[in-house]
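Input/output pair, single chain:
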Amino acid sequence: MGLEDYGGGQGPEPDVLVVTANDVPGRRVERVLGEVFGLTVRSRHLGSQIGAGLKSMIGGELKGLTKTLVQTRNQAMERLVEQARARGANAVVAFRFDVTEAADLGTEVCAYGTAVVLAQE
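Output:
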């Protein structure tokens, strides 16, 4: 598997910048639009659970689960960016992920941050 299989591929320059920092060096925040988030819940399917159980006894990376989690995180982040774009933001600062178990049925992934408008350079 290559880096792009885990969501690490390089794409075009985004129209909504997403950073984990509270500000963007060299850029001034003109307006704070408020919190934005992207949420998704993924159920586990039986095949991956059995495979993960066997692999955990042997040791090593659970590649199928890793790939699924990356896809889930990417989907949550895409939803966050869509929400920020819809509110007129060109950036999201203080970006974070939160991952929790959802009633033993699956995994909930929430991407969240603060939508802002950065001054043009």
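The CA atoms of residues 37 and 112 lie 4 Å apart. Residues 1-10 have pLDDT under 50 and may be disordered.
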